[in-house]
What we know:
The protein is mostly beta strands. Helices cover 9% and strands 51% of the residues. It is built from one helix and 20 strands. It has one helix spanning 7-32; strands at residues 33-36, 39-42, 49-58, 64-75, 81-85, 97-100, 103-106, 111-119, 130-139, 144-145, 152-153, 156-168, 178-186, 189-196, 202-212, 218-222, 226-228, 233-239, 247-256, 264-272. Strands 2, 4, 5, 7, 9 and 12 form a six-stranded mixed sheet that branches. The longest helix is centred in the N-terminal third of the chain and has 26 residues, at 7-32.
Amino acid sequence: MTITINLSKMGRIVTMVILLLSVLVWDSYAQKISTSPTRINFKVEPGASGRSRITVSNNSTTKQGFSVNFGDFSASVTGKSQFSEKGVESRSCADWLTATPAVFELEAGESQEVSLIMDVPSDSAALMARWAVAYVRLREPELAKKGAGDGLNVKVNQSYRFGVYIFQTPPSATEAKGEISGLNYENHVFTINMKNAGETFLRCNSYIELTNLATGATERITTRGFTMLPALSRNTVFKIPEDTPAGRYSVLAVMDYGNREEVEAAEMEILIPERGN
């Protein structure tokens, strides 16, 4: 009997198994290791220093080793964080940060406070908002001395890291401004295009209000809150509920970025057809 193997299909199956195992292993570590808080906001003057701290906890049943270092991140228009090495992003402040202790071990059930120090230079680079991420990485639990004067031989497991978002806003940067740059409706999906046009980090909420022009009935659709980095854009997507009656609607799109005096809003009319048409 001849057995034919579809190598392409087999490759996809193997890939799926590997991905599933990776997720299970990562989930296991995520439940055993924790860091808090998950974001830190600095407001340090140019030429000055600021200090904050994070707590790393070993909730597992075995001894674990850790290291703390820094990198960059940005965000896509869909809101997904994009991580990179420090110094890659133009608004990076990763080089201004140090951690103490940067390398440590924790027995099962122990926690460690790590001081994060922000040293801001006195030049023009300090006059705009910047950001970075602190990586808490798992490593080999033994600190093996290599020899006199050689320091510590630390083996870092690059696969398992936990990020703490760090934001630095100089006190002089006070302009908070959000803009709606576009609206789009297609295939029962409404999209708001937004931009952070100010110099502060925006904590935003957005929603749309559908008003049936024939009946006057109004429905609000909301999303989860999110953070917008200065000078970056984001698209928020709203799916029109399947039970929304067909007809012509006025859509009010709102971007609430925490300003008590004003919100950004835009309006357009859309036609919701019968489902399946």
